[in-house]
């Protein structure tokens, strides 16, 4: 299903955004990234899940234990937001540097430049998929009742995948021209984290700041994740629609940036 | 030019400019200071690397491209392989091109020889089937024996070159672009490489060799293109071409 959707999007966009014609290349690069990342490390794969889990525990301690925020099921609430966010943040950070980091290849071999941020995003996304049983397991353990709405989570994860790929690639292209981005991206992601309903619920936002949610491309994704996982009141379909629209916008911006800059990019590296 | 053979590469009035704007800002701070000075557009110093180059290469030819350093040979190769886009003019190519501009592109030191074969082949643009078919031949030619199962970080530079070359020549690309990679490795392996390229040529592959070595052009090529001062100045027999190249370099 994902493949069909990707093929349709590629056709609509008019460029091979998802490298569907280069599956072998993509497979080998993802395989390399995964192997290299965890070779010679004792806990290996668990580090990537351990980090967001530890962050969730810290937030829980600070906001629930110390500041006593009134929020039922706060731990599963944190988990199902922090884990996808950590995918998003990590993948954006790594994508930004991916084109410049591979300049040795790009200037010597004819290879599509967007394959590098794409592969970085896929590598990180595979970690998120491995975290899914953890999210579900810990949610049930903390007393969240299972429901069919929970399946919506996969839709929102997919939307997050598209968004982080599109934004990551745009940033990676700009990074070739403007090396400040490397320093700015950390700060940007920090602000973005607090501007997104991850630690707090969107209903806690004061009325006069609600507009932030609307201009935040990932805002409705995280609202959607929370509502589908915790069954809180809301409108999942509306969030799904908003996420979809943001994905389209991001992919469109990517297409414009890419077609404008791809031919001169190689010479600027 | 031989008209009886089908053309696999045709280059028409190809020109390539590079922007060498020294004052091109790469950080926000320098953008700002430029803006303060009232400079909104940045000076574009263009530099012609290739000017109005045209030629056709037929199937099965072995073409040597010669020229001084900085004449534009490597740029020409990068244009043909599709890394750069021409400023004006066109390039048409038929069939897969294996660029041997750099051997072992994308090799990762933490991966084994076999893993690197797959990685390198896919980076060069080949599919799974071709790679799997070529795998035994690649391993045999590279003389790595049981070492292919070890991580390449302990390989000697000679072993790396052997592996890289072996991958590039066994993937059955109809067109090979070779950029002086023959100058690496020990004498024995160099001989083996040249013999391999000869063999591919006999099988009907098209080969374009960029080199400074007159001997290589004289003995192997059946055509020579000389580039000097960013223009094509000669296109014809290797003997004459080498003579012109040597006269220019004298």
Write a brief structural summary:
By secondary structure, chain A is an all-alpha fold.
Note down, in words, how this protein is organized.
The complex is a heterodimer of chains A (269) and B (250). Chain A has 269 residues and is an all-alpha fold. Chain A has eleven helices and no strands. Chain A is globular and about 55 Å long. The model of chain A has no long low-confidence stretch (mean pLDDT 90). Chain B is of the alpha/beta class and 250 residues long. At the A-B interface, helix 2, helix 5 and helix 11 of A face helix 1 and helix 3 of B.
Number of helices of chain A: 11
**Beta strands of chain A, count:** 0
Could you say which structural class the secondary elements and strand pairing of chain B correspond to?
A: alpha/beta
For the largest beta sheet of chain B, what order do the strands appear in spatially? Answer: 5-6-7-3-8-9
The overall average pLDDT of chain B, rounded, is: 85
Described by the principal axes of the CA atoms, the overall outline of chain B is globular
Q: What overall geometry of chain A do the principal axes of the alpha carbons give?
A: globular
Identify the notable features of this structure and list them briefly.
heterodimer, A: 269 residues, mainly alpha, 11 helices, B: 250 residues, alpha/beta, Rossmann fold, six-stranded mixed sheet, three-stranded antiparallel sheet, 8 helices, 37% helix, globular
Give the helix/strand layout.
The complex is a heterodimer of chains A (269) and B (250).
Chain A: H1 2-13, H2 23-38, H3 46-66, H4 74-101, H5 103-106, H6 115-141, H7 152-177, H8 181-195, H9 211-215, H10 219-230, H11 236-268
Helix pairs in contact in A: 2-6, 3-4, 4-6, 4-7, 4-8, 4-10, 6-7, 7-10, 7-11, 10-11
Chain B: E1 7-19, H1 28-36, E2 46-58, E3 62-66, H2 73-81, E4 88-93, E5 97-100, H3 113-123, H4 128-142, H5 157-170, E6 175-179, H6 187-202, E7 206-210, H7 214-220, E8 223-228, E9 231-236, H8 238-249
């Amino acid at each position: 299903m994902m493949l069909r959707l990707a093929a349709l999007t590629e056709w609509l966009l008019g460029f091979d955004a998802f490298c569907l014609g280069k599956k072998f290349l993509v497979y080998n690069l993802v395989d390399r990234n995964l192997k290299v990342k965890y070779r010679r490390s004792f806990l290996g794969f668990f580090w990537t899940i351990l980090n967001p889990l530890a962050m969730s525990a810290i937030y829980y301690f600070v906001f629930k234990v110390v500041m006593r925020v009134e929020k039922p099921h706060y731990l599963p609430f944190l988990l199902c937001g922090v884990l996808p966010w950590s995918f998003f943040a990590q993948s954006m950070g790594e994508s930004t540097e991916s084109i410049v980091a591979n300049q040795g290849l790009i200037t010597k071999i004819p290879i599509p430049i967007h394959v590098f941020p794409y592969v970085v995003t896929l590598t990180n996304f595979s970690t998120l998929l491995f975290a899914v049983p953890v999210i579900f397991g810990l949610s049930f353990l903390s007393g969240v009742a299972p429901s069919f709405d929970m399946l919506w989570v996969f839709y929102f994860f997919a939307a997050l995948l598209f968004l982080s790929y599109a934004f990551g690639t745009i940033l990676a292209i700009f990074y070739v021209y403007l090396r400040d981005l490397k320093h700015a991206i950390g700060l940007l992601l920090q602000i973005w984290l607090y501007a997104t309903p991850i630690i707090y619920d969107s209903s806690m936002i004061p009325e006069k700041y609600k507009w932030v949610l609307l201009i935040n491309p990932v805002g409705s994704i995280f609202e959607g994740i929370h509502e589908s996982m915790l069954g809180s009141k809301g409108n999942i379909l509306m969030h799904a629609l908003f996420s979809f629209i943001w994905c389209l916008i991001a992919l469109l911006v990517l297409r414009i940036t890419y077609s404008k800059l791809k031919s001169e990019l190689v010479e600027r590296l | 030019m031989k008209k009886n053979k089908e053309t696999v590469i045709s280059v028409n009035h190809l020109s390539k400019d590079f922007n060498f704007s020294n004052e091109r800002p790469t950080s926000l701070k320098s953008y700002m200071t430029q803006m303060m000075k009232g400079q909104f557009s940045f000076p574009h110093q263009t530099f012609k690397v290739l000017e109005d180059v045209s030629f056709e290469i037929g199937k099965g030819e072995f073409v040597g491209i010669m020229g001084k350093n900085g004449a534009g040979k490597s740029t020409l190769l990068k244009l043909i392989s599709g890394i750069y886009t021409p400023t004006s003019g066109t390039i048409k190519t038929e069939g897969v091109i294996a660029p041997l501009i750099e051997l072992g592109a994308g090799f990762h030191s933490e991966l084994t020889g076999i893993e690197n074969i797959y990685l390198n082949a896919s980076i060069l643009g080949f599919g799974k089937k071709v790679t799997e078919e070529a795998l035994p031949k690649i391993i045999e030619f590279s003389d790595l024996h049981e070492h292919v199962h070890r991580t390449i970080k302990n390989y000697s530079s000679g072993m790396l070159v052997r592996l890289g070359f072996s991958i590039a020549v066994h993937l059955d690309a109809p067109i090979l672009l070779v950029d002086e990679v023959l100058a690496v490795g020990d004498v024995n392996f160099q001989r083996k490489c040249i013999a391999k390229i000869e063999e591919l040529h006999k099988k009907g592959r098209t080969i374009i060799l960029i080199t400074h070595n007159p001997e290589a052009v004289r003995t192997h090529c059946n055509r020579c293109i000389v580039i000097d001062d960013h223009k094509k100045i000669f296109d014809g027999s290797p003997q004459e071409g080498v003579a012109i190249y040597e006269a220019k370099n004298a």
